[in-house]
Amino acid sequence: MLRRNGTKTGSRNLDELLFSPAEEQVKVNELRAAIAPLTGHASIYATDACLKRYLRARNWNIKKAEKMLRDSLHWRSVFKPEEIQWADISGESETGKVYRATFRDKYDHTVIVMHPTRQNTSNMDGQIKQLVYTLENTILNLPPGQEQMVWLIDFHGWGVKHSTPIKTAREIANILQNHYPERLHVGILLNPPRIFQAFMTIVKPFLDPKTFQKVKFVYTRNPESCKLLDDYFANDVLKEVVENPADYNHEEYAKLMEQDDLKSATYWKLGEEEGPKDGEIPNLSIIKLEDST
Description:
- The protein is α/β, with parallel strands linked by helices.
- It has two domains: 2-79, Helicase, Ruva Protein, domain 3 (Orthogonal Bundle); 83-254, CATH 3.40.525.10.
- It contains twelve helices and seven strands.
- Helix 1 (21-35) packs across helix 4 (62-79) and helix 3 crosses helix 4.
- It is globular and about 50 Å long.
- It starts with a strand and ends in a 19-residue tail after the last helix.
């Protein structure tokens, strides 16, 4: 066992324990024994890869990881994120305020794009349901072997009137870091106004240090700041998204999500019929629909 400091962008922990694959598997087996037996969707969700994420999030402490995972399994049994469909959140998505991009970054991370100025509702429950749907969809569209995503948040035109209520921000932070651990590689805040930094100061107590470390402020007029963008994205990709009101087509995106809904339902059904596979990372690419073209 080794110990390293996490200082680079997207690194997993501030002070992370490192184990050999064999040692990791021992930890996974201990955690699985602690939470057994699992049935239904919980057993499909709790793959070895999933258990490793919870263990990493709690620095391989079995008891802490067990509590975190049990809390997530309870939340999933109540919220039922895998059952949310496009029809449930289509209205929230009309403006393209949050969507899964069709491109990936240079490291093959799936990307979630956010435009806070496009907020079109005041319904916190609907907004959170849309975000959870997007998270679930993004995870199932991660390429094989990839577990983390990138958030690209474009603050063009943002003002105080676009501020997220503290209650909503706190709930989003809770869901992201407690129920989707080790899923965020980096969150890039693009051209946030200086006043937004004050908002982040308020939100910071709700974020654990591991998550907060992954949040990066980037200003396109600052060449030094833009190095992070250059590291992750090609210029033509950024031009498609940044300050581009035509980056999102609701009708085309709806078609994509409706297909993914069918694939997602098939994935969970197959899991119930065949059972989870050790180490499997769910991915919709394994699902083929008969009417797919």
